[in-house]
Design a protein that fits this description.
Layout lengths: L11 H10 L3 H5 L6 E2 L4 E4 L8 E4 L2 H13 L9 H4 L8 H14 L8 H12 L4 H8 L4 H7 L4 H24 L10
Antiparallel strand pairs: 1-2, 2-3
Length: 188
């Protein structure tokens, strides 16, 4: 994110929203203000890759980025700056792709693509304890198998899960050993 300043500052809100919503690059670049509902605090994602519209609630940080973007943008598109709009392609923009790749290189991040921000969003949801059904709905996946491919448990999450399982086992064992043993009559 530190590399998204100066000549790349136009990419900061795009990357921040990708990380905060899990939206695809094309969904973000086609997002219009009429689909941003500040009153309800949601983004209505239309014309998706899967042809299924979805609603994504706004976090406070997403709301702040959108408010700032609204103050600097004219027209219906959320990301309609002259710099971005001048080189449109099918799924996105050459400028966005080149700028993002260059920012990653400058940050020392290898083999990281814009779409990986979507994976990061899903992983953060999983780390926060969201179930795979919720993650699938937010990403717009029709089945949880696809969402499972997007969610990568971090080492800390795996460690916490193992520690939690251990603490439950220890708690259950102490409950069992603290209860007095009683004989049960068995009819033979």
């Amino acid at each position: 994110m530190a590399q998204l300043k100066g000549r790349r500052k136009h990419l900061y809100p795009l990357v921040a929203l990708a990380l905060g919503t899990g939206m695809r690059r094309g969904e973000l670049l086609n997002l219009s203000w009429r689909h941003v509902d500040f009153l309800r605090g949601v983004i209505h994602v239309v014309n998706t890759k899967t042809a299924r519209d979805r609603i994504i609630p706004m976090s406070q940080s997403v709301r702040e980025v959108l408010i700032e973007q609204r103050q600097t943008q004219e027209g219906d598109l959320v990301f309609a700056s002259r710099r971005i709009a001048k080189r449109r392609m099918d799924e996105g923009l050459v400028d966005v792709k080149k700028g993002f790749v260059a920012a990653c290189i400058d940050a020392g991040i290898a083999d990281f693509h814009f779409h990986d921000l979507r994976h990061t969003f899903a992983t953060r949801l999983g780390d926060a304890g969201c179930n795979v059904t919720t993650i699938a709905r937010l990403l717009g996946h029709s089945n949880i198998q696809m969402s499972m491919r997007y969610t990568h448990a971090s080492d800390d999450t795996l460690r916490n899960a193992v520690e939690y399982a251990q603490s439950c086992r220890v708690a259950n064992m102490s409950q069992i050993t603290e209860q007095p043993l009683t004989r049960v009559a068995v009819n033979t």
